[in-house]
């Protein structure tokens, strides 16, 4: 096992990783920006290294500085968490060259799943269902138009280098195609320096269902059930749950087996997620594979009682998975609410600032993943998510009630948060019935901008 790991992240996920390392007897090195001197991860780690100024580009995204800190501290591995460098194949490759273990899949697998058109091809070849669409890259409006006519409208225009909804635009009719293709391609060129596009049939108001995977280097691949992440706004998830209220046991098993096949086709190692769209007829399609630990991983931990960060670290250390598929038992129902320092009344504008009194709830089946404390100043440079409230109940109804009670006990003085907005979701009739799609927030609140 590793003796020392550097955590190339901040906030609640850095704290989460420090805790897992401590339980495993692994020493931890935090890295922090000048804005994070007082941050909890900086204080909780065994060692802490300042890696630069507040803007992420000069600190948490600075690959050389992070590698230097790793070598100087004599850490053997880097845990990238999510966001920042977690899906950066160049960084993973640099770690490989330096003899540092990147806790995640190989740089090659990150690159091949990061190219969404290539991932789509890999999955299609492995018999994993994909949305009808293009096989070859599309570079021009003219070619795109021919492909869209063949697929049939409406279509979705996507950037190969995109993902998570970036560089993506729908075209409902041929008349809309040219402009939307040009806009999506321009966005892709600007954001990724890559204007390779692909086109798919548009799936109307799908549900977002993702399966948690664990895979070791010996070819063992298991799945830990699904998370329903349909409650989102502008591709930012707000509330996640497991199991999905939309799946029958039969469909769950079919999708789970497909997710395992998808991970095998990718040659995957580490914790990862297979994202599917599910349409109203219960047809499901591979969308993307996320090669990182995800924000919403605690939802799976609550129903599986498996510590995904510990498993991810063990796998990276070269250990064989000790959990077999038949050992995985998913019990009860878990919900996660993302608490953001933002103002829903002002287009969800971020509201950083100094917290006053903070009270974090507790109780049976209640988990709070956060890095804030009374008097902590939320810096304006990073994500506005300040806490994840996760609950587990024996039933979905119990989990919803528990979430309401828990949010009711949460005190975060000094900043505006989305907690009241979360209540509105939890109190919604359609949500309570489990009848929602990715269009839920837009339809219910008319707040997509
Ligand atoms: C789609 C789609 C409809 N049809 N692809 C957005 C994120 C990315 N992972 C895939 N996304 C979508 N791809 C086709 N062919 C609708 C979405 C989509 C979506 C997907 C998951 C969760 C929320 C979403 C919100 C809007 C659109």
Topology diagram in text:
Blueprint: E1 4-7, H1 11-23, E2 27-33, H2 40-44, E3 47-52, H3 63-73, E4 77-79, H4 89-98, E5 101-102, H5 107-114, H6 116-125, H7 141-151, E6 155-163, E7 166-171, H8 174-192, E8 197-201, E9 207-215, E10 221-233, E11 236-242, H9 249-265, E12 270-278, E13 284-290, H10 297-304, H11 308-316, E14 333-340, E15 342-343, E16 349-350, E17 353-354, E18 358-359, E19 366-370, E20 377-378, E21 385-393, H12 396-409, E22 411-412, H13 419-426, H14 429-433, H15 440-445
Parallel strand pairs: 1-2, 1-4, 2-3, 4-5
Antiparallel strand pairs: 6-7, 6-8, 9-10, 9-12, 10-11, 11-14, 12-13, 14-21, 15-16, 17-20, 18-22, 19-21
Helix pairs in contact: 4-5, 7-8
Record keyword descriptors for this entry:
single chain, 449 residues, alpha+beta, Rossmann fold, Dna Ligase, domain 1, D-amino Acid Aminotransferase, Chain A, domain 1, 5-stranded parallel β-sheet, 34% helix, 27% strand, globular, binds ligand MV4
Please state the average pLDDT score: 97
Percentage of residues assigned to helices:
25-40%
**Total strands:** 22
Bound molecules: ligand MV4
The appropriate CATH architecture of the largest domain is 2-Layer Sandwich
Strand order of the largest sheet: 13-12-9-10-11-14-21-19
Distance between the termini: 47 Å
Oligomer: single chain
User: Pairing-aware structural class of the strands and helices?
Assistant: alpha+beta
Q: Helix tally?
A: 15
Instruction: Please describe the biggest sheet, giving its number of strands, its sense, and whether it closes into a barrel.
Output: 8 strands, antiparallel
Computed Rg: 21 Å
Q: How would you describe the shape?
A: globular
The stretches of 5 or more residues where confidence is low (pLDDT under 50) are none
Number of domains: 3
The CATH class assignment of the largest domain is Alpha Beta
């Amino acid at each position: 096992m590793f003796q020392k790991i550097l955590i190339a992240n901040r906030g609640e996920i850095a704290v989460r990783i420090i805790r897992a390392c401590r339980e495993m007897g692994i020493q931890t090195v935090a890295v922090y920006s000048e804005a994070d001197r007082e941050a909890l991860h900086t204080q909780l780690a065994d060692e802490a290294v300042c890696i630069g100024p507040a803007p992420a580009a000069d600190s948490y995204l600075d690959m050389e500085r992070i590698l230097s800190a790793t070598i100087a501290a004599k850490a053997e591995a880097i845990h990238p968490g999510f966001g920042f460098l977690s899906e950066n194949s160049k960084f993973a490759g640099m770690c490989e060259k330096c003899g540092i273990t990147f806790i995640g899949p190989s740089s090659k697998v990150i690159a091949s799943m990061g190219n969404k058109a290539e991932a789509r091809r890999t999955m299609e070849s492995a018999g994993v269902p994909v949305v009808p669409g293009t096989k070859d890259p599309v570079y021009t409006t003219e070619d795109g138009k021919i492909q869209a006519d063949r697929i049939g409208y409406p279509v979705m225009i996507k950037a190969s280098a995109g993902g998570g909804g970036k560089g993506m635009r729908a075209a409902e009719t041929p008349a809309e195609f040219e402009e939307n293709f040009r806009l999506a391609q321009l966005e892709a060129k600007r954001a990724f320096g890559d204007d390779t596009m692909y086109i798919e049939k548009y799936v109307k108001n799908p549900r977002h269902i993702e399966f948690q995977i664990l895979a070791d280097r010996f070819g063992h691949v298991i799945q830990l059930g699904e998370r329903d992440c349909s409650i989102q706004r502008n591709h930012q998830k707000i509330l996640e749950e497991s199991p999905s209220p939309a799946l029958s046991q039969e469909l769950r098993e079919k999708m789970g087996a497909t997710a395992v096949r998808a991970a095998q086709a990718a040659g995957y190692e580490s914790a990862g997620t297979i994202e599917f769209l599910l349409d109203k007829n219960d047809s499901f399609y591979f969308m993307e594979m996320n090669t990182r630990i995800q924000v919403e991983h605690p939802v799976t931990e609550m129903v599986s009682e498996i510590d995904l960060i510990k498993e991810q670290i063990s796998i990276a250390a070269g250990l064989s998975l000790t959990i077999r598929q038949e050992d995985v038992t998913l019990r009860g129902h878990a919900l996660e609410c993302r608490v953001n320092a933002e103002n829903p009344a002002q287009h969800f504008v971020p509201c950083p600032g100094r917290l006053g009194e903070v009270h974090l709830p507790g109780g049976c089946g209640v988990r709070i993943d956060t890095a804030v404390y009374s008097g902590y100043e939320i810096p304006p440079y990073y994500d506005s998510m300040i806490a994840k409230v996760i609950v587990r109940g024996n039933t979905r109804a119990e989990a919803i009630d528990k979430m309401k009670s828990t949010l009711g006990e949460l005190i975060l003085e000094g900043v505006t948060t989305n907690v009241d907005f979360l209540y509105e979701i939890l109190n919604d009739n359609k949500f309570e019935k489990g009848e929602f799609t990715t269009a839920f927030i837009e339809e219910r609140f008319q707040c997509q901008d």
